[in-house]
From TrEMBL:
Positions with biased composition (Polar residues): 69-78
Family listed: Belongs to the glycosyltransferase 43 family.
Name by which UniProt lists this protein: Galactosylgalactosylxylosylprotein 3-beta-glucuronosyltransferase
Cofactors: Mn(2+)
Organism: Rhinopithecus bieti (Black snub-nosed monkey)
Gene: B3GAT2
Localization terms from the record: Golgi apparatus membrane
Amino acid sequence: MKSVLFTRFFILLPWILIVIIMLDVDTRKPAPPLTPRPYFSPYAVGRGGARLPLRRGGPAHGTQKRNQSRPQPQPEQQLPTIYAITPTYSRPVQKAELTRLANTFRQVAQLHWILVEDAAARSELVSRFLARAGLPSTHLHVPTPRRYKRPGLPRATEQRNAGLAWLRQRHQHQRAQPGVLFFADDDNTYSLELFQEMRTTRKVSVWPVGLVGGRRYERPLVENGKVVGWYTGWRADRPFAIDMAGFAVSLQVILSNPKAVFKRRGSQPGMQESDFLKQITTVEELEPKANNCTKVLVWHTRTEKVNLANEPKYRLDTVKIEV
Ligand code: UGA
Ligand code: MN
C-alpha cells in the first residue's frame, strides 16, 4: 500500500509542478517597457495610439460616456501643426542623418515634414525613405545654382525658400489653421521637449542652441521676459545672433509677410538668420522659450566626414546596396 502511494506521488509530481509554474506565470505582472514614458507623453503619439490618452474613434474605454451626444474636444486636432523644413543633399551620410531625424519626428504629434532636396530631381533614395518613414510629409526639390556651391557661401537658401513657397501656396485659399514653422537642418540633434516649447509660438519664438558659434552654446539674453541681447562668441553685432535651429515662426506670420524669404544677394556668411528675421519681427517682439532661454534643447551637431579611402573605384560587391 505504501509503495502504491509512493509511485502515485511520483507520477503526479511533474503535473503538480507544471500547475504551480503556470499559476506563477499568469499572475506575474507584465514586463515594464524598455524605455520609460517621457513625462511629456500627452504630446507623443504612440504608433498604436497606446500612449495617447484621448483619441477619437479608439476602442470604447468609457462606455458610459459614449451616449452623451455632445462631441468632446479633440486635443490632437487643436494642437498647432509643426511644419519642419529640412534642406538635404546627397552625400554618404544622408540616409543616416535622415533616419535619425525621422526617428525623432515620429515621436512628435501633429508634425508635417517638408523635406527639400538640393537636387535637380527627387532622388530615389529620399523618395523611398520618405515612403517608409511613417510621417506626414511633403517632398520638394530645387538645386542650388553651381555658382553658390562654394565654401563660405550660405547653404540651403533656395531649399528653405521652396519650403516657404509651398507653405504659402498650401494655405493660399483657406483660413490659416494654427501652425508653427521651424527650420530643421538634417544634421542637428533635437530633444522632444523642444517641440513642446515651440508649439506655443505666437509670432516668433527663440531659445538657446548648443555647440555653435565656437562656444558650448549660444543663447538670447532675457530680462523680464524680453530678449535684451545675445550670449555669443561670434559676430555679436548680428541683429539676431542666433542659429537657424534657434527660432520658430507662426504660420500666421509667414502668411502675413508673403515677401519674407532668404536672400542670396548681399547676404554675408552667418547673416541668413538675421536677414530673414529682420523681415518679420523685431528683437523686442521675440518670445523666449526653454525657461527664459536657460535650457539647451537643440544641438548644432555636425557629422564627421566619412572615411571612404578603401571604397573600390568600381563596384566589387555582387549586389547593389543602398547606404
Ligand atoms: C550652419 C547653420 O546651422 C545652417 O542653418 C546654415 O544653413 C549654414 O550654416 C550655412 O552656412 O548656410 P552648417 O552645419 O555649417 O550650418 O551647415 P550644414 O549642416 O552643412 O547645412 C545646413 C543644411 O543645408 C543641412 O540640412 C544640409 O543638408 C543642407 N545643405 C547643405 C544643402 O541642402 N545643400 C548643400 O550643398 C549643403
Ligand atoms: Mn549642420
